[in-house]
Specification:
The protein has one domain (4-66). Helix content is 51%, strand content 18%. The chain has 3 helices and 2 strands. The protein has helices spanning 4-10, 35-45, 51-66; strands spanning 17-22, 28-33. The radius of gyration is 19 Å and the shape is elongated.
Length: 67
Amino acid sequence: MVPAELRRKHGIEAGTRVNFIEDQFGRIVLQPVTEEYVDRVMGCLADGPDLLAEWKKEHRSEGMRER
């Protein structure tokens, strides 16, 4: 059970999804998947490549080779 102080601090409520991650020292880390967490992850990906555009480009070139 997650202590109340940590639940309040990290916005963990009933039904909050969590990820279990093993760190480099073999410790298991509990990562709550809250709106704040999702926003941070999306922010990290914002400057990355446009994966949809890359996928479309690859599939167009594959289609051209098949003809």
